[in-house]
Amino acid sequence: MIFSSVSSYVQNFINPIINISIIYFLPTYFQACKGASPIHGGIDILGLSLSLGPTLIVTGASITITKKYRQPLWLGWCFLTAAVGSMATLHADTPLSHSVVFSLLSGLGTGMLYSATYFPVLAPLPISENAHALAFFSFCRSFAAVWGVTVGTAVLQTQLTKRLPAEFLEQFPGGVELAYSAIPVIGTLSEPLQSQVQEAFAESIIVIWQVMTGICGIGIVASFFMKALPLHTQIDEKWGLEANGRASDEHTQASDFLETAN
């Protein structure tokens, strides 16, 4: 049964990597390739936010009613993998509507995964271990977000080094590490250099989505190790009692010491 918990921890670690990479690098695509401002680039991924929240609620409610958590996780991975894989088709001249649909689809996938990954962690464990399990669960989720930015940035910088025109790179002595500082300059470039730079950014970001699609594959494989275990219906009635008892004893000892001293 331990494989169910390990499987969920792996899925819980991978999901934020994908989600954070979408949040960071899809707006980068809009700014570099579509001439969007930072604010407008955030608005363009509104579909992700609009779909993620309701999906969280619906998924949690459905698991509560049906007591089944594997099906929502499998469906979530299908949605997320399809969304990230589809993003790998976004070129500089791709219609904006395509990316909006893909972000909406990714919100459905990540919403299901964020909501459902708790259950295969807790189902195999005694309820007395819930606090420890969820503490490590939260740590994995937070730590994974760092890797979403790190992996994506490493891929972007490496690919831009190969793809950006030399004429454009000469304008930035600091190299492509200044890629985000260079984005506002793209709109001032003349043709055909502007189109070449936009396509270089698009092709570089496509590699990010290809990498993330592969990482999604790890999540899908991990999900097959879950077992259909019954969910707990009781609570840990002894939770916190032992700690409260120790605190009470320490308080009594302190009071006795003060009375003796007086």
From TrEMBL:
GO molecular function, one term: transmembrane transporter activity
Species the sequence originates in: Hermanssonia centrifuga
Assigned keywords, A-Z: Membrane, Transmembrane, Transmembrane helix
Top-level taxonomic group: Eukaryota
Name of the protein in its database record: Uncharacterized protein
UniProt lineage: Eukaryota, Fungi, Dikarya, Basidiomycota, Agaricomycotina
Recorded GO CC terms: plasma membrane
Topology relative to the membrane: Multi-pass membrane protein
Coiled-coil regions, chain positions: none
